Every structure is written in structure tokens, then in C-alpha cells.
Amino acid sequence: MFIQTESTPNPATLKFLPGLAVLDSGTADFPAPDTATKSPLASRIFAVEGVTGVFLGGDFVTVTKADSVLWDHIKPAVLGAIMEHYQSGRPAIEGERRESAHAAHDGPDGDIVRQIKELLDTRVRPAVAQDGGDITFHGFDRGIVYLHMQGACAGCPSSTLTLKMGIENLLRHYIPEVVEVRPVAA
Q1: For site-directed labelling of 18, which of 28, 55, 66, 181 has its Cα 20 to 30 A away?
Q2: How many C-beta atoms surround the C-beta of residue 184 within 10 A?
Q3: Which pLDDT tens digit goes with each residue over 22-79?
Q4: Are 27 and 182 in contact (CB under 8 A)?
Q5: Measured distance CA(15)–CA(17) in Å, rounded
Q6: What's the predicted TM-score (pTM) here?
Q7: HEC string of 36-66?
Q8: What radius of gyration do the chain's Cα atoms show?
């Protein structure tokens, strides 16, 4: 098994490509070890000292490290943990999983929210997945769109630029009711 790695715009995060499916559909975000109880893969990666976050996509695993740790020191252990997981034959997530998805929105802005979600799904999320992350809709209130950033996007130094110059401009172009985009914590 050969696992490729790719850097991401977030220097604390690396994208690991095992060459096999990680998840059948959607994504799964594990921002801390205690959130990974249903994921044998994420739990195994969290066992590597210095790992602070794990994000699973269709064909990739994004790992975030503590600032005090160097990739040169933990990358071999993370590669080993991913390899051991695939050799074990266990699924990435056991039991029923809650997929990382857009928040539901009820109310008078239903049409606007549908347009926002469609643009996120068709234009934003595929591009962000290339960098090892995901962005989901969290809410819409008085022209402000709230988005949840996951994986490599969470804590990325360029995420503010991505939100303001990329996503906000895109949404404002297609949906005049949108005036601003803001990130939210998990």
C-alpha cells in the first residue's frame, strides 16, 4: 500500500491519500480525540502524539497537528496508523454515522437558503475538498451567511481570505440578499 501526501493551505494540516475509498459518501469531522469514538481510523490516528484533528473525505484523510510538533516527527507514525487501519479490515466509521451536512433552515428565507446550499455544493465544496476540507451551511440571518469550516479549512490562515474574497463574492454575485459571510465554531 502506497499512501501519498499533499500539503494544504493550512501548514498545520496534511492530506493523506491512501489510494482506496475512505468513506462511501460525504465527510466526517473529528476535531478532538473524544469525538472519534465511532471511528477506528480516526481513533488510531489520534493515538499519534501531536495529532489534534482528523477529517475524513471520500478518498482522503486530513490530519491536523499541534503547532509545537513538526511534520517530520509525526508523519511516519500517521502513515503507519493509516496503513494499520486498512490492514485491519475495519471500516473507517462503525455503526450509523451522522454525515457532515448543511444545517436545516426553516423560515421565510427558504428560497435564498436553497440557492446558498446549491452554490456551496456545486461551486465551493468540491474546490475546498481538493485542499482537504469542507464548508457547510450553518445559518442565514438578515443577509449574513454563517458557514462551518472543517478539516484543513478549520484554523487555516487563508480561510478568512477564502471566505471574504471567494465565497462571499460568489454568493453576493448570485444572491443579492447576501451581504456578508462569517465562520462559526463547531
Answers
A1: 66
A2: 12
A3: 998 888 889 899 999 999 999 999 999 999 999 998 899 999 999 999 999 999 999 9
A4: no
A5: 7
A6: 0.77
A7: CCCCHHHHHHHCCCCEEEEEECCCCEEEEEC
A8: 17
